[in-house]
Design a protein that fits this description.
Chain B: Belongs to the universal stress protein A family. The complex is a heterodimer of chains A (about 525) and B (about 140). Helices cover about 75% and strands about 0% of the residues of chain A. Chain A has helices spanning about 1-20, 20-45, 55-70, 75-80, 80-90, 105-115, 115-130, 135-160, 170-180, 190-225, 230-245, 250-275, 275-295, 300-315, 320-325, 335-340, 345-365, 395-400, 410-440, 445-460, 465-505, and strands spanning about 160, 170. Chain A has a two-stranded antiparallel sheet with strand order 1-2. Chain B is of the alpha/beta class and about 140 residues long. Classes of the chains: A mainly alpha (about 525), B alpha/beta (about 140).
Chain lengths: ~525, ~140
Amino acid sequence: MRKSIKAAALSAPLLLAATAPAMAQSVDERVNELFASSTGWFVNLIFSPFPGTSFPWIVAWLVIAATVFTIYFGLIQFRAFPHSISLVKGDYSDPNDAGEVSHFQALATALSGTVGLGNIAGVAVAVGIGGPGATFWMILAGLMGMASKFTECTLGVKYRNEFADGHVSGGPMYYMTKGFAERGLPMGKVLAVLFSVFCILGALGGGNMFQANQAHAQISGVVGEYPGWITGVVFAAVVFAVIVGGLKSIARVTEKVVPFMGIMYVAAAIVILGMNADKIGWAFGQIFEGAFTGLGIAGGMVGALIQGFKRAAFSNEAGVGSAAIAHSAVRTKEPITEGFVSLLEPFIDTVVICTMTALVIIITGQLIQDPNTGLYLLDEGASTIQTVDGNKGVALTSAAFSSAFGWFQYVLALAVILFAFSTMISWSYYGLKAWTFLFGEGEITELVFKVIFCIFVVIGAAANLGPVIDFSDAAIFAMAVVNIIALYFLMPIVKKELNSYMSRLKSGEIRKYS
Amino acid sequence: MSNKIVLGYDDSEAAKSALAFSVSLAKAQGAELVIVHVLEWSPYSFLTPEEIEQRHKRREEELKRAEDALLAPVRKSLEGEGVTVLTELKYGHIAETLIDVIKAHGASHLIIGRTGHSALSSRLFGSVAGSLAQAAPVPVTIVP
């Protein structure tokens, strides 16, 4: 496949000059076909339903895990919520540790890796297929996912590797090897290797191709159709400059602009909701009704549930293990504090931002309802809901926001590009950590991964949304399969940490500095 | 009441004048001199994953550099002056951190050099000297 891309990249400018879009389009098509045919089996395996039903086992796997952690840690996401906010504010930070990475910084960096297209495009996919009811399940999945995130991030910090030169590597592969060894359990190494393989695939899929694909969809929505590989080559060049060329300035600018884009996105959503304040009650009504009846969507209530849970997991990555890599580099005496901080992530990402997107899409009337029955009309394939202009994915969100402010599509296009870019940078880091776990740290091995990563940017931009989103989901959920097995075995360790910390917090041994 | 003077110190010319001034003042009053260098730092800034990974290492390098290039030479130059000198190296917002140090030592006087910011940048961001003059709990001397 790499060969064909290279050939495409070399010959394409000539083709474009000579015969034009038709030929170039066929390059996209070839990439797409090759991609779909070579990844189909993997997608089918991950998303295969329980025999005799249409319910994918992987969705049950995530829901059960989040429920188990929620119960096992006694609703930690609600109990520890105020304390988590205090930690982020720095109330418990020793002033003598100033200059180290703060809890706020760790959270902000992890968030800029997760807040992104999942919140804009993923939600649109969820309500586009599952109807408004998908939002309910998405919020529920977000709330429960907070417990999964808490568990994995605590372990990530506890079992990270600190190297002699002071740099730190952590993540599921390290708690799988070290944590399992500590508990005298076998198979830790096997899980770690499996996780690393899936993490690399996830980095190339959801962390890369899906981003490139949707960034292209967004740009071509604004400037008009043109072949995807062109966007791919430009993106790949910039990503290459940052991760291989060490061009920190671009990364630094992105890291600074992304949070403001996020705030602006939420602000715009709030304004639109304010303008339609009279419909908010109706929208929540649709969400609740749809959650339990499906309102006529394909697959009914189960369809809404599957979409909601799938897209929530894809957006906030709870249980996937990526956040454990992101949070593990923080220096803290108490690994559990990083767990507390990380549980805010699914809350901000899913419960707040994803819900905003869904509400705006519903309230602005993008999904077409039968005026008589109130049921949603399906398009020809009967797989998605009819939308005003036949929009799907990020285009649906864009249409919803633009229906209130025409200029917002340009802001959104910029936001999508920046989100896509920052997510790519974050995932290139996660992928790299998995890669170096497998192949060892070293400049050449790292370079090989980075170059592969850039090649996949081009493939992602050229392929169609369908196969890309399937593969992205499959790879990321495959990470969750392995990670959650490890979390089950290691959760007693987290419980011990939690009990010890809570008793010291109660006794006043751990107290606020200011 | 303890007699301590806090000096906010960096590598500027004004800070060197402030140092000379505070040494003579400390001698005259028989006061202890607390020399503080603050490394500007906000826990609310944004970092990339690589920056987070490298932060601990960088922090140690920054501390060592400031100690070797700024504080150690100052302590050496003041040996034999007959003044008790303490040095402190802190991370944080410059004005807030200096105020914290004043409180921690129960100092009675703050001396700082006037930094030569352009009119525009001080208007936009405020000057350290200006905000200390406003907010410090003790008399402040600003040395040009």
